[in-house]
Structure formats: structure tokens, C-alpha cells
């Protein structure tokens, strides 16, 4: 009975925290997005992904560091004490939410795998020097995409290869390698696992920023930028990848407005957009994080007592 009460209280607090933090993110993300417009595309993508995963990370951290220890250390082991209706109900809802997220992620993985198997029928392995395999596929769609998270593969259609010059193809492949290096497909899987309807706009903004970050990583001079822009224009004539392949990122898969914005950035490419000091943000945040940790350590006992009083309300 004690274990069930602990599980019910922990799941209830996780659900409440996740919901509250998600509402805060939904209400504040546009303001935060405007505040970081001067950042590079890479940093904007990192910021938006961190903001999107903040509810999950915050709820998990608070539950694991405060809620569970306060219950285990301060709650008496009274076997006859019944489980309250509030933790029982909220705990059940939390399990349903987690189960729905797991089903959503498994469904996205299954649909993507089925689509990729269809694309790979009759495919040949292309010789390349990249760390991930490159497959030449027969269907014209997707023209160029990277599929898979733990075992990524680059898919290049014969029609796309025939329409691109050597320099355009090289720039396009560097773009896909940037997605692999940044583990963007794994990030998409995580978003599927903890999806909320109100956060879909934020996920779309992150996806667009991730594409621009991959564009910046693929080019180092204006000539390469023009090659990538030319590749985008040529491949935009092909059909976009199937929407069911959630965990496959195509070079051209976004809306026309987002594609036009990427092409305009590349045509007017500026070297200052590249993120030359990627570690400086961490250097600013590290002292603040250390200060928070020291504060938590100094007041941990008091916080546990206060947290236990809150869990008492849920238990009863």
C-alpha cells in the first residue's frame, strides 16, 4: 500500500507540474522567440528545443529530487491508510498520458520504418566517405532525406542525383549530415513521445530553425551557399516525402514560405551567421546553474518538509 501511495503521489505531481509548465511555455514562447531573433539559427534551434522539453525536464527533475524523497523519508509506513481519490485519479490520468505518448512514438517509428522499406526496394549503396550509409533509391520522392535516429541512413533518388551538379549535391549532402550530427530525428522522436496539442506551433518553429541551422552548417562561403540554394530550388520540383514518415527529414519538406525564407538566407549568405562561439552560452549559464544547486543543497531539508505537506494533501 505504501508503494502504491508513493507511485500515485509521484505520478500526480508529475502530471500537475508537466501541465503547469506546458501552459507557461505555451504562453511565453512567442515572447522568448522574439527575444532571440539576433541569435544564430543553431542557437535558436537549441533554445526552442530546450524550451519545448522544459516541461518534461522540469517535471521529472522536481519529482525525482523532491517529491519522491520527501514521501519516502517523511511519510509513515501505515499500511492501513487508504489511497486518496485525488492521487488515484491523477495517477491514472498520468499513466494514460504516458501510454498515449509511448504509442505515438511507436506509431511514428513504425510508419517511418514502413515508408523507408518501401523506398529502399531496389536501392543500391552509393560509395561515399560519409559516416552513415548513402542509398540510391528509385522513387523520386523523397529526393534527398535522412531517415532513422540510432542508425541513420541518407536516401538519394536517382532523379535528384541526375538533376544536381556535383557541387550542389555535395552541399545538399552536407546539409543532411548536419541533421545527423545534431540528432534531429532522435529529437523528433522525443517530441512524439511527449506530444501536446498546444505545443505543436513551437515544434514547427523548432523544425524551421533546425533546417536553417543545418543550412548554415553545410556552407562555409558564398559559393557553397549558392550551391545549396540551387539544390533547394531544383529539388523543390519533386514531391515531398510522405507525411507518415515522421522520423525522416527531407532536404525539401517544409512549406513554400519556409523554403523561400531558406533560399533567401542562402542567397544573401553572411559569414557572421555561423555560430563561432558555441560554448559561450554554457559559460553564462554554468554559474547560474551552480548557484541554484548550492541553494538547493543548503535548503534541501526545509524544501522536503514543505513538499511533504503538499503530498499529504494529495494522499488524503
Structure description:
The protein is α+β, with helices and mostly antiparallel strands and about 325 residues long. The chain has one domain (about 1-315). The protein is built from 11 helices and 5 strands, in the order αααββββαααααβααα. It has helices at about 1-35, 40-75, 85-120, 160-165, 165-180, 185-195, 200-220, 220-235, 255-265, 280-300, 300-315, and strands at about 125, 135, 145, 155, 250. The chain has a 5-stranded mixed beta sheet, sandwiched between helices. Strand 1 and strand 2 (about 135) form a beta hairpin. Helix 1 (about 1-35) packs across helix 3. It is elongated.
Give the terminus-to-terminus CA distance.
14 Å
Supply the number of structural domains.
Answer: 1
Return Rg in Å: 24 Å
| E-strand count | 5
Helix content: 55-70%
Task: Report the structural category.
Answer: alpha+beta
Question: Which keywords apply here?
Answer:
elongated; 316 residues; five-stranded mixed β-sheet; 11 helices; alpha+beta
Summarize the model shown.
By secondary structure, this protein is an alpha+beta fold. Helices cover 68% and strands 6% of the residues.
Topology:
Blueprint: H1 2-35, H2 41-74, H3 85-119, E1 124-126, E2 134-137, E3 144-147, E4 153-157, H4 158-163, H5 166-181, H6 184-193, H7 200-218, H8 222-235, E5 248-250, H9 256-267, H10 280-298, H11 300-315
Parallel strand pairs: 2-4
Antiparallel strand pairs: 1-2, 3-4, 3-5
